[in-house]
Design a protein that fits this description.
Distance between the termini: 72 Å
Largest sheet: 5 strands, mixed
Oligomer: single chain
Number of helices: 11
Mean pLDDT: 90
Shape: globular
Radius of gyration: 31 Å
Helix content: 25-40%
Length: 549
């Protein structure tokens, strides 16, 4: 008997199992391709990989999220999606093998994955209802039908060649035997399987390509609306940045971070592309005597302010990259809230928390007192002289000096609700992060880089320091275990922006550890104590190790 058919106990041989695995892979491919095409008709955020990925992000414990951001940076979402695809691929192979022996069970397994995608789609914070489940359902049905059909080709009987006939004496039954007297092998439809598998692969490739292409153009109206936005001259423009605010040191972070280099940390697997012409933002809740709804044009017609503000992500490790400075233009948030009748708690206001909601369901809570204490908290419409990039919140986002992003920087905002900290926990608070999180005084060495090998002699050590809404007063550098020595500070632009610093070091041969610390305008010295990012931001001194040749 040939191994590719069945062994004497009736179990499929290895080649047949391999073809079953191939059938599973093709079924998985067809499922994803079909789902992608249907998602193009619904919205890109309804893709099974996106909804399952979003649910995975929501369910992941905060320390694991923090670990992912620390190790993968802004590629954490790509790593998650690749991980989901890897799990789906392995599962599809296993279901294909299972289907060779249990055909219906294998097909049902794919339907089970569709049920998981459906549940994830319906339970997303930004779900639009049953329509979001359609891609998962369509993909699962397409994959299950294909697997059932392909495995059927593997078990479809074909007429054996040159069998002999014999009669059982006891029963008189007639049976067929192979030439060697063993039972005739159960043949399968090779030609039919090859044709079906090749056709399925080609069709899935076409469907998937079309789906991806349509998804890529689904935001054309949003792109067109952004192109039409013209930022008016601000009523309160930012003053020019003094030349002395930027040091001419190779390797130091520029005073203004270009948009394409500005950090991005959020939970959106697909960047929302919001059509500005249809965008609306509602202000309502406790203490809002005059609820209001605003369009982009409404905001653009108001007096705008322009400010340079440094933002920092709470996931930024000591010496990390998730801090950047940009010139923002927008509407002063305190003025808008006051027009709606909102008062801060210190003046008898009923609400102490502002909850901002994004179009993707994110909720971020900010202290009302901080938003109305005179700082330049704003609803930003522009960044570095242009309308907000989609990645950074177009058409409107919040920017609040002095607060970490997870308690202030809501991107793609569409709703503002006034409430209390006791009555509502936003997204990150539910996951163990702090309710209130002012940015800590921190500093970073930009040059030399860790493990650099500078030459002996003059070496310029340089970097940035920040203590938003307090201001940086002093930066000190220490070489090995030597004394702290004061660094040269670039001119301060405002207390809401970082400051560059430099320190001329006469480097000597051998290994050295360079350490930096900052002191803010309140006299608080950056603490040496190392803490994790959770619950309210990392702390500690930044050090780099170099070897001087």
């Amino acid at each position: 008997m040939r191994d590719e058919e069945k062994d004497q106990r009736g179990r499929p041989g290895l080649p047949r199992l391999a073809l079953g695995a191939l059938s599973g892979a093709l079924a998985g491919f067809a499922a994803l391709a079909s789902a992608e095409l249907v998602a193009a008709a619904v919205r890109p955020q309804s893709s099974p990989v996106v909804v399952v990925g979003g649910a995975s992000i929501d369910a992941t414990p905060a320390p694991i999220k923090d670990w992912a951001i620390r190790h993968f940076g802004t590629d954490d979402k790509l790593v998650l999606q690749l991980g989901i695809l890897a799990v789906l691929a392995v599962s599809a192979l296993a279901l294909g093998v299972l289907a060779v022996r249990f055909r219906r069970v294998g097909a049902a397994g794919i339907l089970l994955f569709g049920a998981v995608g459906t549940a994830a789609a319906l339970n997303r914070p930004d779900s639009i209802g049953i329509a979001d489940a359609l891609p998962s359902v369509a993909g699962a049905v397409a994959g299950a039908l294909l697997l059932y059909g392909l495995v059927g080709r593997l078990t479809a009987p074909a007429r054996p060649t040159a069998p002999t006939r014999s009669t059982t004496p006891e029963s008189g039954a007639v049976s067929e035997e192979a030439a060697d007297g063993s039972p005739a092998p159960e043949a399968w439809d090779r030609r039919g399987f090859v044709l079906a598998a090749a056709s399925a692969a080609a069709a899935s490739a076409v469907v998937g390509t079309v789906g991806r292409s349509l998804n890529g153009t689904s935001g054309r109206d949003a792109v067109a609306s952004r192109d039409k936005v013209v930022l008016p001259l601000p009523g309160s423009p930012a003053r020019p940045v003094p030349k002395r605010a930027g040091l001419r040191v190779a390797g130091i972070s520029p005073f203004v971070t270009p948009n394409q280099d500005f950090y991005r940390v959020d939970t959106a697997l697909v960047v929302p592309k919001v059509d500005a012409t249809g965008w609306r933002m509602r202000v309502h809740g406790k203490g809002v005597r005059r609820p209001a709804t605003y369009s982009v044009d409404d905001l653009l017609r108001r007096e705008l302010i322009e400010r340079d503000i440094t933002l920092t992500c709470v996931s930024n490790e000591v010496g990390g990259p998730y801090v950047g400075n940009a010139r923002w233009i927008g509407v002063r948030l305190a003025d808008l809230l006051a027009e709606c009748g909102v008062k801060p708690p210190s003046r008898g206001g009923r609400a102490d928390q502002l909850v901002a909601r994004s179009v993707d369901g994110m909720t971020i809570g900010s202290p009302v007192e901080d938003l109305m204490d005179g700082r330049d908290a704003m609803l930003a419409l522009g960044m570095n002289g242009e309308p907000l990039p989609f990645e950074h919140g177009f058409p409107v986002r919040m920017v609040v000096p002095g607060l970490y992003g997870f308690v202030s920087a809501c991107k793609w905002i569409e709703d503002i609700e006034l409430t209390t900290f006791d009555s509502y926990d936003p997204y990150w608070v539910k996951r163990g992060w702090a309710r209130r999180a002012p940015i800590k005084t921190e500093s970073r060495i930009d040059t030399p880089k860790p493990f650099a090998r500078p030459k002996a002699g003059p070496v310029m050590v340089a970097g940035v320091a920040w203590a938003q809404h307090r201001g940086v007063d002093k930066v000190e550098v220490r070489v090995d275990d030597g004394p702290w020595q004061e660094a040269h500070l670039a001119a301060e632009y405002t207390r809401d922006t970082w400051r560059q610093w430099s320190f001329p070091w006469q480097a000597t041969s051998g290994g050295h550890t360079l350490t930096v610390r900052a002191t803010d305008r309140t006299g608080t010295v950056q603490t040496e104590e190392r803490t994790r990012t959770i619950p309210d931001g990392a702390s500690g001194w930044h050090s780099v190790v170099v070897t001087v040749d």
